[in-house]
C-alpha cells in the first residue's frame, strides 16, 4: 500500500550534510528530518589491531545520522536523493537503512498515521 508508514535512517559523512539537506528539501513531499551527530567504526576498523598496523587512541570516526519518517511511496525518491548527494566514492560514505513504521502520532494535534507525518503542513 502506498500509504504505509516507513522510516529511513542514513549515516553519512558530516561534510556531506548540506548537500543532502539541499537535495531532500527540493523534493515536493519532503516530510522533514532529524539529524544527530554520531561517531562509529566501520568494518575495516572492527578487528583487533594486527601486527604492524597503526592504531589510534580514538578510532571512532565522526558521522551524521539522518532520520526521515515518510510514506512508502516516498522512500525511493528520498533514498535516491541521499545516495546521490552523500556519495564521494570513498570508503566511509555511509549507509542507508529503510523499514516499516508501525505507527506515528503528532503530539500537538493528535493526528495519527500518514496525517501525523504530513499533516496540514502548518
Question: Your description of this structure?
Answer:
With 122 residues, the chain is an alpha+beta fold. The protein has three helices and four strands. The protein has a four-stranded antiparallel beta sheet. The radius of gyration is 17 Å and the shape is elongated. The model has no long low-confidence stretch (mean pLDDT 89).
Structure keywords:
3 helices, alpha+beta, 122 residues, single chain, elongated
- State mean pLDDT (0 to 100 scale): 89
Distance between the termini: 26 Å
Task: Report Rg.
Answer: 17 Å
Work out the number of β strands: 4
Structural class: alpha+beta
Poorly predicted parts: none
The best one-word shape is: elongated
Beta-strand percent range: 25-35%
Number of helix segments? 3
Give, in order, the helices and strands: EHEEHEH
- Helical content stands at 10-25%
Largest sheet: 4 strands, antiparallel
The strands making up the biggest β-sheet line up spatially as 2-3-1-4
Summarize the structure.
This protein is of the alpha+beta class.
How does the SSE layout of this entry go?
Blueprint (H helix, E strand, L loop, with lengths): L4 E8 L4 H9 L8 E7 L20 E11 L3 H12 L7 E7 L13 H5 L4
Antiparallel strand pairs: 1-3, 1-4, 2-3
Amino acid at each position: 500500500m502506498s500509504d504505509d508508514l516507513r522510516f529511513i535512517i542514513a549515516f553519512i559523512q558530516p561534510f556531506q550534510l548540506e548537500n543532502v539537506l539541499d537535495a531532500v528539501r527540493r523534493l515536493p513531499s519532503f516530510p522533514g528530518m532529524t539529524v544527530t551527530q554520531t561517531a562509529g567504526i566501520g568494518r575495516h576498523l572492527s578487528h583487533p589491531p594486527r601486527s604492524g598496523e597503526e592504531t589510534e587512541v580514538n578510532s571512532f570516526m565522526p558521522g551524521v545520522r539522518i532520520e526521515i519518517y515518510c510514506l512508502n511511496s516516498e522512500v525511493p525518491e528520498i533514498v535516491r536523493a541521499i545516495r546521490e548527494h552523500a556519495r564521494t566514492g570513498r570508503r566511509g560514505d555511509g549507509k542507508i537503512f529503510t523499514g516499516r513504521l508501525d505507527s506515528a502520532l503528532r503530539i500537538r494535534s493528535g493526528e495519527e498515521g500518514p496525517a501525523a507525518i504530513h499533516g496540514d503542513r502548518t
